[in-house]
Amino acid sequence: MSDQKELLNHILKEYRAGKLKVPGLPEVANKIQTAIRDPRTNAKQIAKIIQLDPALTARLIQVANSPFYRGSAKVEDCRAAVSRMGHQTTKSIVTSFSVQQVFQSDSAIVRDLLRGIWRRSSHVAAISFVLARLTPDIMPDRAMLAGLVHEIGALPILRYVENYPELQKNRQMLGVMVDKIGGKLGHMVLKSWAFDDELAGIPEQLNNWNYAPGKEPNYTDVVIVARVHDHMDSGIKDGKFPPLSEIASYNKMSVSKLGPDASQELLYEAKEDIDALMGMLGSPG
């Protein structure tokens, strides 16, 4: 049996047995999710949890003072940042920053692969944020988090591939493997992180061009469209994605009424915001 088949069989066997090695979400993010689920939790209590991580605290204050959330007065402390952005937005932002910490590896090759996935995911996340601002009933910060974790199923695969040095060099093979089982693994990872069904189901729908469970766009629709735009921006013409006009998710969104060219133009005009959002999300160490 080839190393590729051996690895795939091993991952699938552990997945079916419920023994898959899944990266854990950092403790602060877990505590924030638990706290916000309790309606009695206030901004002071949430800030106290965030302040367990000084770097995270500094980043959250920076975001609260960014053009995306800035108010009339400058935010000086964590409690004020939480109050300005609200509990749900704070949860999405903190979780987004925390996800970055799991994109780590002792293998230089795997680390490089993870950085590539992070760059692509953060670009999709930034586009999702911008598209959400144009889409009724979609929260931009939640859309950004959805875009950031859309390819999270690659992480378990790359964790396992650390034990197969020869396979680490075969990027094409790893890409095929991620396409084949990444959706299922991504759903498992997000459920283990206590993500709700709405976001946890996104990885399994990424290539579903006929996805249309309802007439109104949801977060899956936004990420599907953002991912297509990311691919278009890359300039790669591999036939992997159909034209926007043939994608159900795109046709559900109000931006589709302007046509595919106009939609690209809107995102081009928002390039400064997209770059700023990607900078805000940072990169793995």
How are the elements arranged and paired?
Blueprint: H1 3-16, H2 27-37, H3 43-50, H4 54-64, H5 78-85, H6 87-99, H7 108-133, H8 140-148, H9 154-161, H10 165-168, H11 171-192, H12 197-200, H13 219-234, H14 248-252, H15 260-269, H16 271-281
Helix pairs in contact: 1-11, 2-3, 2-6, 3-5, 4-5, 5-6, 6-8, 7-8, 7-9, 7-13, 7-16, 8-13, 9-11
Summary?
With 285 residues, this protein is mainly α.
Please describe what this structure looks like.
By secondary structure, the protein is an all-alpha fold. It has helices at residues 3-16, 27-37, 43-50, 54-64, 78-85, 87-99, 108-133, 140-148, 154-161, 165-168, 171-192, 197-200, 219-234, 248-252, 260-269, 271-281. It has a domain at 3-21 and 104-281: Hypothetical protein af1432, CATH 1.10.3210. α3 (43-50) crosses α5. The longest helix has 26 residues, at 108-133. It is globular.
